[in-house]
């Protein structure tokens, strides 16, 4: 049995490895908000476990082993299924479910996760648009881009919104900028100014100004 801390480390390494080949311990420390020395100690422990969960080389960073990746993906699967269950079956808001799922992801069994998936119709995405890995499978890839990367006059369909900031989720939900919404970039202010977007799906062309930070956490499938 792996501890909650071990699973949190594996999940963090997996998420960071989607953007880099080898994950620096400093990035793990920042992600988990722990001291760098504590990260190094834990990584060495994971490297020495049997079966080994990570490969660690000093000054070169960390990679997950095949076994470590399977564990990380299963924890992520639990997390996202719980989020969707809380949202769809219990009516919790999309800005509330991440915190609860963080607590529950470590304690539910794989069998219970499978029952949740069956009850929800084998879903592909959680409430924020993050893909739910299939049982025993790999994390699906995507080619989404941040909303702020669209050019003025270009359309895009919102597919995923970062779940790291509940207040931002409440704000975007209030604007109607949620997965499945088509938006048009009406105007981009210069010098990293706000991005003005119009809602195309039932929004009657309503426009909203989004700052660069917010627009960088909304991921879209680019249109024309």
**Major β-sheet profile:** 6 strands, antiparallel
Helix content estimate:
40-55%
CATH names the topology of the domain at 145-222 as: SH3 type barrels
Class of secondary structure makeup: alpha+beta
Summarize the structure in short.
The protein is α+β, with helices and mostly antiparallel strands. The chain is 40% helix and 17% strand. It has 8 helices and 8 strands, in the order H-H-H-E-E-H-H-H-E-E-H-E-E-E-H-E.
List keywords for this structure.
224 residues, alpha+beta, Arc Repressor Mutant, subunit A, SH3 type barrels, 6-stranded antiparallel sheet, 8 strands, 17% strand
Overview of this protein structure:
- There is one protein chain.
- With 224 residues, the protein is α+β, with helices and mostly antiparallel strands.
- Helix content is 40%, strand content 17%.
- It has a 6-stranded antiparallel beta sheet with strand order 3-8-4-5-6-7. Strands 1-2 form a two-stranded antiparallel ribbon.
- The chain starts with a helix and ends with a strand.
List the helices and strands and how they pair.
Blueprint: H1 4-17, H2 25-32, H3 36-48, E1 54-57, E2 61-64, H4 66-88, H5 97-104, H6 110-119, E3 145-146, E4 155-161, H7 166-175, E5 182-188, E6 195-199, E7 207-210, H8 212-215, E8 218-222
Antiparallel strand pairs: 1-2, 3-8, 4-5, 4-8, 5-6, 6-7
């Amino acid at each position: 049995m792996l501890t909650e801390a071990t699973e949190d480390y594996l999940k963090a390494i997996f998420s960071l490895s989607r953007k880099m080949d080898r994950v620096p311990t400093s990035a793990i420390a920042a992600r988990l908000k722990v001291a760098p020395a504590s990260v190094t100690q834990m990584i060495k422990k994971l490297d020495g476990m049997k079966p080994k969960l990570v490969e660690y080389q000093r000054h070169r960073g960390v990679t997950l082993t095949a076994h470590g990746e399977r564990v990380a993906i299963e924890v992520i699967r639990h997390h996202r299924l719980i989020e969707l269950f809380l949202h769809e079956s219990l009516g919790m808001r999309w800005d509330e479910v991440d915190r609860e799922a963080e607590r529950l992801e470590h304690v539910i069994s794989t069998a219970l996760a499978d029952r949740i998936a069956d009850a929800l119709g084998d879903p592909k995405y959680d409430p924020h648009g993050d893909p739910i890995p299939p049982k025993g499978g790999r994390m699906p890839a995507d080619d989404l881009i941040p909303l702020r990367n669209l050019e003025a006059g270009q359309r895009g369909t919102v597919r995923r919104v970062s779940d790291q900031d509940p207040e931002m989720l409440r704000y975007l939900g209030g604007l109607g900028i949620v997965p499945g919404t088509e938006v048009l970039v009406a105007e981009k202010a210069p010098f990293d100014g706000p991005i003005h977007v119009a809602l195309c799906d039932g929004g009657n062309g309503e426009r909203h100004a989004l700052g660069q930070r917010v627009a960088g956490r909304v991921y879209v499938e680019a249109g024309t």
